[in-house]
Design brief:
With 842 residues, this protein is an alpha/beta fold. It is built from 21 helices and 56 strands. α7 packs across α10, α15 runs parallel beside α16 and α15 crosses α18.
Length: 842
């Protein structure tokens, strides 16, 4: 008798294990499911096997080849164009089936007595016999009813709960006569259960069900996959293990070393060429494939580990699946029912939460806690919050599902009934994320003041006036148009503290979120007159008469952003002559290259209309680039120094706040005006907090982040900055080109070096230990000063990426170039050495 092994399925519900492997080749006790089926067929004297293939056919064909090494004769039928269904693929090989044949599914584990089933078929002179079994929960399977003689009189494919009329189900194994294939059409997708068997029933053909005794498991989902392994170890199913049983319930392959101090509970399987380290604890139910290394002090609680995996020292694996070639680094935890796809890396001390699936070839950074499936991106982040807020790839990292959970986590840190503002830019992706955040907030009983499409300076201005617990703003990232940035603000409109960020992360990663009853669900209120509120605060801090008499002409490029809907109203009210460019709202973000083209265009327009200056507004009203009357663009460190000069000229003996990496030109400018410079950590929250905490501060920020005017609101505001510039240039009777020409000449250059998370702390310690303490400044990163001049180098770890940034500052260009080359080489050499040591430790 011939058997048809149906091996065409892609195993969607077994993803990520079947992304690069057909389901019949998924291992059970270190042998593919298909090999266990072939062993079953051989036990019942079936030695001719035809495998129907569709998904990744070469994997199965390369493994079994002609079948000789497995004691059978293998033939292959490949569905080239499209899947033909369970019956259609068998119809396709009619010429090979000229006598009674058996069809068996390639994704089940069983030890049914096939010989008895075949004898039943022959005795009943059946045209089609379905091998049936009884299961406790038949809802996932086709339910079948037979009469006293075993003839089928009714069946239903995958019934709903209300439709269940039996606990006897179809196992996907059939004994068929060749003539039943005549009922099937050629080259058309069709199914045995849905098409052929109902037709045979309607034609009154003899179709029987054989209720088999024994074990059967449809390995259709991940829970069943793990359970089949455990059942095989406990001998609940007759399976052949590939290794000798060296002790009761312990199978160990050839050339495997087990440290004498390792403790192994049985039943367990350890494959060929494995290395089990000192003090490893292996609990009963563990399956370890071939060529696997287990580091010292690792603890394995019933994991399924495929071939070639590397498990680091002190790692803990609990009832999870670790696929082929995956590396789990030192002290990492992979928890119950989690699955890590092939060739992935789980970083040191990372944690994969219960039930999480990681697709193949992904990298989980050291220290990360992953509790959502990692499918599309390449890397799981260490935490939610980065340098500023929560950021990630739009609709890949920052998805609706992610945003709902993030909103619920934030809301769970607030009291029920609290009110939170939510605002956004005009991009469609921001609207999608905002609505999901709102749903999450409502689900934990938090009310939402929906500010809708609003420039972020307006949101920061109105938050303190609204008796709310805080606010959220969603926008396309100022520096990456494929990224979304979600910022959280406190009751003053300042970005929330690190302590509050940690609370939100704790609620998110631990899933410690309350669920409100239906009558406690939060409400959404839409706010009005936001622009009026902002305008009043705006107007109070300006010399309106000076603005109206300035006769200034300004060219403003809004870059198709939401601030373009607000600023024209302000400037018109103050009588400024504004030439507006690109003020219409655009639903898609502008690329950096397009922004540069618009900046060039802006310079030409400024010269053509003889304007006082031009300005390009970005980052949803936070940032700006100036263009002087000659068309020269002013940005970065030059813009920082220029704004400090103008504000301290207007307010001598005042203070300014700048980030630690800002050019020392700021101090030189401040010295001219008896001003004071306060340096902070290089993140927006630190700048905002320092501006609020220190008295007499008139300006904060930099050309990189934007500028803060503390008396207006605590955040960055390019719109107010434009009006203030008009006022100051008028009062000081200067032009931007004049101010620019008077700035100190300081060289400030930067360079970025890749540095793994595991090496950052060691790098900082190395720099501190190898330089005199009196030359160091440790506000943020490590700043190394020269003793008798204003030359310095700053090594600043990135808060969000495995990078470090080098900043070099001096009035001597040659010193800057030489120092940057020197420390770039030092850092790269140190990182390479640390990585090599890490590999040796592994």
């Amino acid at each position: 008798m011939r058997a048809v092994l149906m091996a065409g399925g892609s195993g969607t519900r077994l993803r990520p294990l079947t992304c690069d492997l057909p389901k019949p080749m998924v291992p059970i006790l270190n042998r593919p499911i298909a090999e266990h089926i072939i062993n079953l067929l051989k036990r019942h004297q079936i030695y001719e096997v035809i495998a129907t293939l569709h998904y990744l056919p070469d994997v199965l064909r390369d493994y079994f080849q002609d079948g000789g090494d497995f004691g059978v004769q293998m033939t292959y039928a490949i569905e080239e164009d499209q899947p033909l269904g369970t019956a259609g693929c068998v119809k396709n090989i009619t010429e090979l089936l000229d006598e009674t044949f058996l069809v068996i599914s390639g994704d089940s584990i069983t030890d049914f007595d096939l010989t008895a089933a075949i004898e039943f078929h022959q005795q009943k002179q059946s045209k089609a016999t379905l091998i049936l079994t009884r299961v406790p929960n038949p809802i996932e399977f086709g339910v079948v009813i037979t009469d006293a003689q075993g003839r089928i009189n009714r069946f239903l494919e995958k019934p709903s709960t209300s439709e269940i009329f039996s606990d006897t189900v179809n196992t996907g194994t059939y004994i068929l006569e060749p003539e039943v294939l005549d009922y099937l059409p050629e080259n058309i997708e069709c199914d045995f259960s849905k098409d052929l068997f109902p037709l045979l029933l309607a034609k009154n053909e003899p179709i029987y069900g054989y209720i088999a005794e024994g074990y059967w498991c449809d390995v259709g989902h991940l829970d069943a996959y793990r359970q089949a392994q455990y059942d095989g170890l406990e001998r609940k199913v007759k399976l052949e293990v590939a290794y000798p049983e060296i002790a009761p319930g312990l199978w160990v392959g050839a050339n495997t070393y087990i440290d004498p101090t390792a403790k192994i509970e049985t039943p367990a399987i350890i494959g060929n060429n494995c290395r089990i380290g000192a003090r490893v604890k292996i609990e009963d139910g563990t399956v370890i494939g071939d060529n696997v290394t287990i580091g010292a002090d690792a603890h394995l609680k019933r994991p399924i580990i495929w071939n070639g995996a590397i498990i680091g020292d002190e790692a803990q694996l609990s009832a999870c699946v670790i696929a082929r070639g995956t590396r789990v680094d030192r002290r990492a935890h992979v928890l119950e029912a989690a699955v890590v796809g092939s060739l992935s890396t789980v970083g040191e001390e990372a944690q994969i939460s219960p039930g999480v699936r990681v697709w193949p070839s992904k990298k989980i950074e050291s220290g990360a806690i992953l509790n959502i499936n990692l499918i599309w991106g390449n890397t799981a982040q260490r935490n939610l919050f980065g340098q500023r807020g929560v950021q990630g790839l739009a609709n890949i990292d920052i998805t609706p599902e992610f945003a709902v959970k993030l909103g619920a986590a934030y809301g769970s840190t607030l009291k029920p009934g609290s009110v939170v503002t939510v605002s956004r830019d005009q991009r469609n992706v921001s609207r999608m994320v905002t609505r999901s955040l709102i749903a999450g907030l409502m689900s934990v009983g938090v009310d939402v003041q929906n500010l809708d499409t609003t420039a972020i300076p307006i949101a920061r201005t109105v938050i303190p006036t609204m008796s709310v617990a805080g606010g959220i703003h969603v926008r396309v990232h100022p520096e990456r148009r494929d990224y979304i940035l979600i910022e959280f603000m406190d009751i003053k409109g300042i970005n929330i503290s690190k302590a509050q960020e940690k609370k939100i992360e704790g609620a998110y990663f631990k899933e410690d979120m309350r669920r409100s009853q239906s009558h406690e669900i939060g409400d959404v209120i839409y706010s009005a007159q936001l622009v009026d509120c902002y305008g009043k605060a705006f107007e109070k801090l300006l010399n309106v008469d000076t603005l109206r008499n300035s006769r200034a002409k300004v060219v403003i490029d809004y870059v198709y952003a939401v601030s373009g809907a607000v600023l024209p109203q302000m400037l018109d009210k103050f009588g400024a002559d504004a030439v507006v460019l690109n003020a219409s709202l655009n639903k898609t973000a502008i690329s950096n290259a397009d922004r540069e083209l618009l900046l060039t265009q802006l310079g030409h327009v400024v010269e053509a209309v003889n304007a006082n200056f031009g300005v390009q507004v970005s980052a949803n009203g936070e940032q700006l680039i100036l263009v002087d009357e000659s068309g020269f663009s002013i940005r970065g460190e030059m813009l920082t120094a220029l704004m400090v000069d103008m504000m301290l000229t207007a307010n001598p003996r005042s203070s300014v706040v700048v980030p630690v990496h800002a050019s020392s030109a700021v101090e030189l400018v401040a010295h001219r005006h008896d001003g004071h410079v306060i340096r902070t950590k290089a993140n927006p929250t630190a700048l905002m907090e320092a501006c609020q905490k220190n008295p007499n501060v008139v300006l904060g920020g930099s050309g990189e982040t934007g500028f803060i005017f503390p008396q207006l609101h605590p955040g960055f505001d390019s719109m107010f900055c434009i009006a203030k510039l008009i006022e100051m240039l008028t009062i000081q009777e200067r032009s931007l080109a004049t101010v620019r020409s008077e700035l100190p000449r300081v060289i400030n250059r930067s360079y970025t070096v890749r540095c793994p998370w595991t090496a950052k702390g060691a790098l900082m310690r190395y720099l501190v230990e190898t330089h005199p303490a009196q030359n160091l400044e440790l506000i943020d990163g490590v700043k190394i000063r020269q003793p008798y001049d204003d030359n310095w180098l700053l090594v600043l770890p990135d808060a969000s990426e495995p990078l470090v940034h080098l900043y070099v500052n001096s009035s001597d260009r040659d010193w800057v170039d030489e120092t940057l080359r020197d420390y770039r080489a030092r850092v790269q050499h140190f990182v390479e050495r640390e990585q090599e040591n890490y590999r040796l430790d592994m």
